[in-house]
Amino acid sequence: QTKRSSINRVHPEAQLLKEGAEWLKAGELVAFPTETVYGLGANALDAGACAKIFAAKGRPQDNPLIVHVCDQAMANPLVRNWTPAAERCVEHFWPGPLTLILPKTALVPDIVTAGLDNVAIRMPSHPVALGLIKEAGFPVAAPSANLSGKPSPTRGSHVWRDMKGKIPLILDGGACEVGLESTVLDVSEGIPTILRPGGTTKEQLEEVLGEVRVDTPSVNQVPKAPGMKYRHYAPQGELFLVSGLQERVVQRIGHEIQRGHARFKRVGVLCTLESAPYLQNCFPELLFVLGSKARPQEVASNLFEGLRLCDERKMDLILVEGIEEEGLGSAVMNRLQKAADRRTRHI
Ligand code: TXA
Ligand code: MG
Q1: How far is residue 132's CA from residue 303's CA, in Å, rounded to a whole number?
Q2: 208 within domain boundaries
Q3: What is the pLDDT of residue 68?
Q4: Residues 243 and 165 in one domain
Q5: 3-state SS string for 233-300
Q6: Is the pLDDT of residue 1 over 70?
């Protein structure tokens, strides 16, 4: 009974936004596109509606939700104290792929913050997301619209696969531009700290804020963004991450494809545009081009589609070409390392 409606991503149809807002007002869930990934939205001020999010995703209760607003005025009643760093972020990066962690007011239900004193707030730049929130008239809590443990959805088809039968409406605005989740930045006190790398780069933040730290909890420490402790997406197959000089990478992947075939494995390769022509000759069962290594943006926007394809086509061995860890490349590599966890082999 899930309806999937195509919506214009530049000029969203008013009727569809209204339909979405009606469901949200009735305490139901609506999936909608943002510039990062698809969100699974509920009225952030309605604890009962938010509880449905956890049920639909199979999400652990201790993982808090991001609250989405269409302007700063909508965020004001939720925030106890806007720090100077937060104000600067709003001015420079909103609307956009940056989530701010700030002290919350009593208006924010406990289920949204998983009992924490801080709330995560973001103003997306996608016209459909903004239009839907505006039409609803209240802030919208929304995690990524995937089943817990799967990669975030960056296409309407991904949401359909994970959420059909569980929610009344999916607004399908096609592919998400950024393709990776927002950067989560703690600006509640002290030096601004990145809790999750994402669509807004550390370099961009430093330009505006000066010193920026990265929360890199060691094995026994609890990360400040509760969601970062989960294993996240792990594909069915074994995943090898191969980075380094291109010639070596191509050689190595070629060798691993052969070995995979010798062991009767279905081999999937996610690689850059630059390496693809060479790897084609090794005949992997799936060759998916992530994009040019000169354009990490392109790689980011195709990454989750590529990982999902490997599972759909039942690859037992997945070889992924890494890219340089700078700018958006840092977030891409963060997701790849998490995707594989202990099954990753860096070679
Ligand atoms: O791009 C995005 O951020 C997407 C779109 C839909 O906006 N949303 C998203 O939400 O990725 P989700 O729930 O999949 O990831 C939210 C992350 C989790 O790691 C969570 O632990 C962290 O943000 N988070 C949420 N509230 C927090 C809080 N109060 N303090 C610290 N971390 C928080
Ligand atoms: Mg998520």
Answers
A1: 27
A2: no
A3: 99
A4: no
A5: CCCCCEEEEECCCHHHHHHHHHHHHHHHHHCCCCEEEEEECCCHHHHHCCCCCEEEEEECCCCHHHHH
A6: yes
Cα–Cα distance measured from residue 320 to residue 253, given in angstroms and rounded to the nearest whole number: 8
Question: Of 178, 207, 229, which residue sits at a domain end?
Answer: 178
Domain boundary among 163, 178, 193: 178
CATH number at residue 17: 3.90.870.10
Q: Using the atom order of ligand 1, give the atom closest to the CA of residue 226.
A: 21
CATH number at residue 337: 3.40.50.11030
Q: Give me ligand 2 centre to Cα 144, in Å.
A: 4
| pLDDT over 90 percentage in the chain | 88
| Atom 17 (ligand 1) nearest CA | 227
Q: Tell me, yes or no, whether 54 and 156 share the same domain.
A: yes
186-196 mean pLDDT: 97
| 190-194, 242-246, 252-256: least confident range | 242-246
Across the chain, what does the average pLDDT equal? 95
Distance 69 CA to ligand 2 centre (A): 18
- Domains in the chain, number: 2
Check if 228 has its Cβ closer than 6 Å to any atom of ligand 1: yes
Q: Does residue 221 contact residue 118 with C-beta atoms inside 8 Å? A: no
Asked whether residue 16 is assigned to any structural domain, the reply reads yes
Ligand 1 atom with minimal separation from the 198 CA: 1
Q: Is 224 in the pocket of ligand 1 (CB under 6 A)?
A: yes
Those residues with Cβ within 8 angstroms of residue 305's Cβ, 6 or more apart along the chain or in another chain: 154, 155, 158, 288
Q: From the CA of 227, which ligand is nearest?
A: 1
Q: Which atom of ligand 1 is nearest to the CA of 199?
A: 1
Per-residue pLDDT tens digits for 113-148: 999 999 999 999 999 999 999 999 999 999 999 999
Identify whether 62 is part of a domain. Answer: yes
Range of the domain at 130: 3-178
User: Does any domain span residue 230?
Assistant: no
